[in-house]
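Researcher: Next entry: Methionine synthase (Thermophagus xiamenensis).
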Amino acid sequence: MNKTESLKRLVRERVLLLDGAMGSLIQQYKLTEEDFRGEKFKNHSIPLKGNNDLLTLTRPDIITHIHKQYLEAGADIIETNTFNSNRISQSDYKLEDTVYELNKQSASLASKIVQQYSTADKPRFVAGSLGPTNKTASLSPDVNNPGYRAVSFDDLVEVYAEQASGLLDGGVDILLLETIFDTLNAKAALFGITRELQKRNLDDFPVMVSVTVADASGRTLSGQTLEAFLISVSHFPLFSIGLNCSFGAEDLRSYVKRLGEISPLYISAYPNAGLPNQFGEYDETPDEMAPKIFEYLKNGLVNIIGGCCGTTPEHIKRFGQYINDAKPHIPPQIERKTRLSGLDPLIIDENTNFVNIGERTNVAGSKKFARLIREEKYEEALAIAHDQVQGGAQIIDVNMDDAMLDAKKEMVTFLNLMTSEPDIASLPIMVDSSKWEVLEAGLKCLQGKAIVNSISLKEGEDIFLQQAKKIKQYGAAVVVMAFDEKGQADTFERRIEICERAYRLLTQKINFPPEDIIFDPNILAIGTGIEEHNNYAVDYIKATKWIKQNLPYAKVSGGVSNLSFSFRGNNIVREAIHSVFLYHAINAGMDMGIVNPGMLQIYDQIQPELLTLVEDVVLNRRPDATERLIDAAEKLKNTGKEENLSQKNAWREKPLEERLHHSLIKGIPDFLEEDLKEALEKYDYALDIIEKPLMDGMNIVGELFGSGKMFLPQVVKTARVMKKAVAWLQPYIEQEKRDSNKGPSKKAKILMATVKGDVHDIGKNIVGVILACNNYDVIDLGVMVPAEKILSEAIKQDVDIIGLSGLITPSLEEMSNVAKEMEQRKMKQPLLIGGATTSKVHTAVKIDPFYNGPVIYVKDASMSAQVVGALLSEKERQNYIQSVEKEYENLRLANQNKKIKEYFSLEEARSKKWTTDWKQAPIKKPNLLGIHTFKDYPINEIIPFIDWTFFFQAWRLTGNYRGIENVTDKISEQKWLENFTSDISREKAQEAIKLWRDAQNMLQRIHNEKMLKANGVIGLFPANSIGDDIEVYKDESRQEVIATFHFMREQQKKKGKETYYSLADFVAPKSSGVKDYIGGFAVTAGEGIEFWIKHFEEQQDDYNAILLKSLADRLAEAFAELMHFRVRKEFWGYNPDEKFNYDDLIRERYRGIRPALGYPACPDHSEKKTLFELMDVEKNAGIYLTEHFSMYPNASVSGLYLAHPESFYFGVGKIKSDQVEDLAKRKGFKPEDVVKWIPTNLAD
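Model: Predicted structure:
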């Protein structure tokens, strides 16, 4: 029995065990550049560290050891170390020419090891790993050029053929195409693999594919659903299909289960060891992951199970302990049906209604489309395709056959653009051309399962079968025209003769799936006045019925508009002809048709007289039918359809109260004055207008926001309208008070403040707006408010609730101080705690015990109204407070009983510090040592560096809004919104567009009106480290220390990690004798903001006030990014050739880091004082520090520059008392003073 037969026998008998991650184990060896180079690549021109596949050649001992570990753990199948051994990925290292050798040697190495472990009872197998490459054939890497592709189908075919060749020649038993994120890449890979297998007569060789889903929607990165992906690769005789990477075992299980339900293949799965933590590491231990894998095994979900990122031999060993009790997945029998796909599947069977094929993206069928293509107005041409989708098309036909066009070029260009439009790309595409080269070029653009329109027997059987074979290899269905060597079939007899012959050839000669054959028995023009044409429609309908009865699984289609060609220019008659014909043809079995959905009438709604005339022609019921219809057509020619009245302002016709509600909910202030004047006539008092219709509207807003059906930007705009309404009514209210002493009903008062030492207030302001929208009287004391002022004002104003906010960690202690002071004063008001650094656990453990009144943690703005409502409700208050107190008590107990973390002593942690050969380190002396200031830096140069993700998050619009900058009109907006599949995500995206546009307008104002000034200072200095400190020197003599930064070091034990970092590690030690350097920066985009905030608040415009603050924060961060870019490129100059790339910038794909003081790598905010004194920041940039080391203006960023190539961001985490004492000694502080600044980093 050969290996393939053995594999197929075993997979039926039991679940097979695949190995785990390779990269995770390689990292444990802590390899150097020299390890990757070896002797073979000793003098290679660029760094090779990180090219793990290369270790097969330079450190085969390591790869051998890893393979052996997995085999000893029980793996039935091990993968070759070739995930990136393809020409595209290796080009990053200029090693394209080693690809064949890499694959062959890796396969040979693994095969030899497997032979050592294989036994008759437990044979082992080698799977040749083929990764996805780092390019996508379906997507453009350039958001500004959606039609561009960085790699072609043909390129990928060659790339994968070369890799498969090496793997096969090296002796693998299986080819595993894995971590597929772009189906077109996978189709090209299968195309190339087929070529290599055919060369070697390996028709039955096992090929596995494994896809990865991009998010919880279950779609691939290129947008396909799992079912669409399965359909797209179903043409290849796969051994198995499965999922890997993506998620941990628990989250991946539902997708694996679904795949097993719809696929006739064996199923594989190899999930990650949980989800990555904040350091990108995978924490799920073998004992934690194994029970989750057991759920796969006991429920029969898989035939092959293994591990992906973060899994180890110990994980695989634990999985293997469950294998004996596992039941292998039994693939279901899948019924033959016509299955097509774009991003979504389209399944056509006897239960499917007639399938409309959109015809307007055809240069022969639409003059407008042809003109737009000739003029290269592709966006307008795409709008036509979009209209077809909106009109009900389920397949889109694309034809570029025009004598004045390069049909192949235009087909590729337009298909690439179409597949970048999710609403269009969701549908299968019909590639339509009379030229084979155009059809083939089109198929190479499409990741889904397309339809070729068309081939025929016109040039004989050989060419017909040759083209059909290629179509099958591309994984497409085919339209076969009723046309042979004698010409076009125009009678019933000729139609069925040709269709039967073609069917037998396709199914018997090349095993073409019959369900993928679509016959077009020729819809020809009727009503021409030529007698021979009168029976064309009848013969088509009869042929359709015959095909459905005699050619199993085949489908029938046709170009419906051809039928009414004689009546062009008379749409009413043409639409009636189409509808009548389809009514009868569909009843006979017609499955689909190329038709403009907008050119159809409902059969039952055709005027009776016209219906009779049209049916006479279509069904050839009387000899004078054509003449009678022509006579009637003249009378109907100028009849048009009534246009629908615009509904834009229909709401203005509704009752007053509904109009006011609409204005509030939609944030429309335009009609307020008009409606409020009307309200004054209807209501007795102006105050009644506020307390009745306006507050009713605000209650609706509150309900919508609380249920997630309305989003923060909308709520803030609502508040603006409400404020304008109240301001307009205020004079009337005051007059009524004077006239009648009628006072307003008492509203609950809520006092809010950002605590002493903290200047951050955007979150607090948003909460204030939401509470004001819910009819609470909000008293905002602003920022940096001492406890004394908060409490004295609360007593003076007799407030009902006090809310505290803070962003920086020292604010946590200040909140505790406020709680203690409230208890001292015997206050009873509920205390609300919120802000970025706060948490429910911290509130329960560190604040609540100090105050006997209710202390409530408010997670975010959306919860504020709900919490306040419960606290002020006589009915709910007691139960709510008791439930919170019980929850906090449980949290405190859990905190006391939580698993004790293990720590190294500081001395041990320091012995495990990161180090390198400093004599060989690539240290560059800065081009410009010293301090450099930047006053009034051009805002327009900063804007391109903005990371918009955090802007949307500030507005509580979580989601991926990449590409929003391309939304410029309704068409592009609709296209972009199709990225969002659920109703709620699409609604949020629509609000994101509105917010984005408002932000762009505000940025324009900021620039034009100089609303804000951006100032900054940077410094570059000689420096060296001493232990966990960095000394900064006055000059290159390094004799005078002008500043010392004191850093902390990781102490908490980490699984599988041998290095414990401090920022000081990335600067050369003084003892090394190597001269190193450090940089510092402080930038702000907040000068001038106070004037404008006051201006907007005076206009009752909270929306623009918050918008300006959030943009100032983003500009400050962008300014920091810009200056870091310039430091790398110019001022320090260690990366002089770096080009600006937005994606690389956002993903921090560059050398060096800029850690902010007070954040995870250096949690101690007091280190800012050293930085500010070193660079005289207050003088040079206009930024000053509060007593708690918060920066003002609030829109400011500061930190350090470290340039070592291996420096990275990390979190120090918790530290023990020995490090607290050491840090205090180094800083000259008392230990209790150190504790004050790092309260969340204390382990005990």
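Model: Note for the record: The longest helix spans residues 1102-1131.
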